[in-house]
Amino acid sequence: MQYFKLDTLNTSYIFEVMDSGHLQQLYYGKKIANPCEITPLEEKLGTSLGTTVAYSAKFPTLNLNNLSQEISTSGKGDYREPFILVKNSNGSLVSNFLFSRAEHISNFELDELPSSYAKTDTLAITLTDKGANLDLILYYSTFADCDIITRSAKLVNNGEKTIIIEKIASLQLDLPYANLDMTTLDGAWGKERQITKRTAQIGLTQIDSKCGISSNIHNPFVILSKQNTTDSVGDGYGFNLIYSGNHKETCEVTIHNKTRFMTGISDFGFSWTLQSKASFVTPEATMVFSDLGTNGISQQYHTFVNEHIVRGVWKNKLRPILVNNWEATYFNFTQKKLLDLAQKASSLGIELFVLDDGWFGKRTDDTKALGDWYVNKSRFPDGLSGICDKINKLGLDFGIWVEPEMVNPDSDLFRSHPDWAVTNPDYDYSLSRNQLLLDYTNKDVRDYIVTRLTDIFSSANISYVKWDFNRPMSDFYSPTLTNQGEFFHKYTLGLYDVLSRLTKKFDKILFESCASGGNRVDLGMLCYMPQYWCSDNTDSCDRTKIQEGTLLAYPASTLGAHVSACPNHQTLRMSTIDNRFNVASMGLLGYELDLNKLSNNDLKSVKEQISYYKKYRQTLQYGKQYKLSSIFTSNLSSFIRVSPDKQTAIVGMFYGQAITSPPSDILKLDGLEDATKYVVTTKKQSFEAKQFGDLINIALPHLANNPIFKMVIEHGYSLETECEKYTSYGDLLCNAGIKLYQAFSSSGWNETVRILTDYGGRLYSVEAVKDKQK
Ligand code: DGJ
Known about the structure:
Layout: E1 3-7, E2 11-17, E3 23-30, E4 84-87, E5 98-105, E6 121-129, E7 134-143, E8 148-157, E9 163-175, E10 181-186, E11 194-199, E12 203-208, E13 218-225, E14 236-242, E15 247-253, E16 259-265, E17 272-274, E18 279-281, E19 284-290, H1 293-309, E20 322-324, H2 326-329, H3 335-348, E21 352-355, H4 383-393, E22 397-402, E23 406-407, H5 412-416, E24 436-437, H6 443-458, E25 462-467, H7 487-505, E26 510-513, H8 523-526, E27 531-533, H9 540-553, E28 559-564, H10 577-584, E29 588-592, H11 600-622, E30 624-629, E31 636-642, E32 648-655, E33 666-667, E34 677-682, E35 686-688, H12 696-699, H13 707-714, E36 718-720, E37 725-729, H14 730-735, E38 738-739, E39 742-743, E40 753-754, E41 761-768
Parallel strand pairs: 20-21, 20-29, 21-22, 22-25, 25-26, 26-27, 27-28, 28-29, 39-40
Antiparallel strand pairs: 1-2, 2-3, 4-9, 5-6, 6-7, 7-8, 8-18, 8-19, 9-16, 9-17, 10-11, 10-13, 12-15, 13-14, 14-19, 15-16, 23-24, 30-31, 31-32, 32-41, 33-38, 34-37, 34-41, 35-36
Helix pairs in contact: 6-7, 9-10
């Protein structure tokens, strides 16, 4: 019996070619290092069950409905979700793909689609459907360093007639268990990637996207884990798709205790005409197994993204601290106002200035000018190079915002090319944020955009570009297509064409993707743009959840996080500048508020924050992350990020609501070296004395009745929070942990009490004691 065993550092994946020619999935899990005997792994097919279909006269007990397979088809007795559904040239929906051959390919890449790189090996298995004259090639690539295996498929029409692909997935995994927990990242605008965990029940559990992009509704990332798997122990499988369009993930559990997981392009509105001799390639899907709980899965995905997805000059490079003028000014800016902001930013140690929406055409609000990619000369008489030079002289790099997939009906572009917008001839168009989508299935549109942006990006010393996308798709239709079922995928291919041309041409620019915040955060976009704007919601309490969800799948080195104004513009919630920083420091730090309106106390804090972030930036952005506790299941979200040499670590703790009579907090670390001695130190924070209100006489009894001091307090006298410092070996810190100072609970405050209030947080640095200090 021929079988295939794919090994990574810690995992094995095994399947075989059955006598019938089907590929039977045999095992995926912890590495099997000894010589492999596959008979114990095979499904035993001694007798057939009632109401099942016998595959053929030659294989009368082969019942595909209860067989773990590499790919499933329709019309031969498997009534679960099919991997592939093809309307053959005679109109039938029957497929029968059987093994033909296998080969190894080096440096494998997908046509037209973004894919991972530096693969250890790729195995290509060709299956043939003789009845329909089709080949289906399954690609399996391994990444030994991070235990990831990727999968994709190519369907080749060898017949003389056209066929229609109704559905084709990228990855199917048939597991021989039920009762798996399924974790997904779900949300909406301002509430992206909230963690949902449920036990997959008999039948189908499905997430998908139907709005043309990967979406904030359901991210394509999924975890299936055995019951009782925790952050640090237990078996789990992670999956993600390298694709930015409509996707679908299904988890199907049967009465026979089997679980079928599938991911790929969504079949919603999908149908693809495959001409004779043509082929169709599916996006690359990724999977990982870890017995180290969900942290094991996250860590492998973080490595995978940093090593095999993000590419070019920004790979593994420290990301700059930026200031963005959006929430500081919205559309209401002058060049002077921007330069004042840049001047202040530079004095605080910020490195990059980002000019957001409103610098082009007649764009002075969000009703007009999208599509008119010409600098607004009344706002910037010397063009982008004029303002860019001035910003550069202040010691800052310069970046701009664009939204090149959109057009406002009130724009010169729409007036001259109404046919370039996505509208449907049978209906009035539907707007979202006053805008329409540009038809990227049309090469003329793509060429025009590439030309305009090439002009813009070459017109000044631009080192960063924020690429926005602010509406979901509607009115799906393109006059360029004869089969409208190809609209969504051809749009995504068109987008990748534009991105690949521009990012190759401007290979030094740091691109950040954005879609009303985090509406298109996926591995496809990360192949072109090394980072994304995680959410328009910068409220530190909401961000704690959004970031915890996002970090489950994507590394900190990709996650844009800004300190914004107080009260927060999305929630009107108040929080201290240090709390806002603490949360933002878990991603790529930026400031998005009018720095010139900050109090002197806050400015002092910002300056300290920036130097603290710079000191620990390498560990914060690229350290190995261990989640210590989750805000989705407790009142605390906490993480530690550890440098590869385990000499430095940073801990972030982010609380939910303040609790009276709080339990004692134990800070139990992870990932440190047992026999290394570390110093753990709280990052000092400040808070305003007036926060105590009437309790000031408890907090500062010796001063509270002094009238002058009362006045000073009213004007923002600030106090420092506690500073804990411990020296201990890694084994104690990780196995026992530190009992932290008590949290404030009405009865008194001094420098050994932690003031947290609602959604408060702390950062702790963890530094190895150098030899001579020991
Ligand atoms: C939506 C983005 O998410 C914001 O950060 C900002 O860039 C606006 N678009 C500008 O229109």
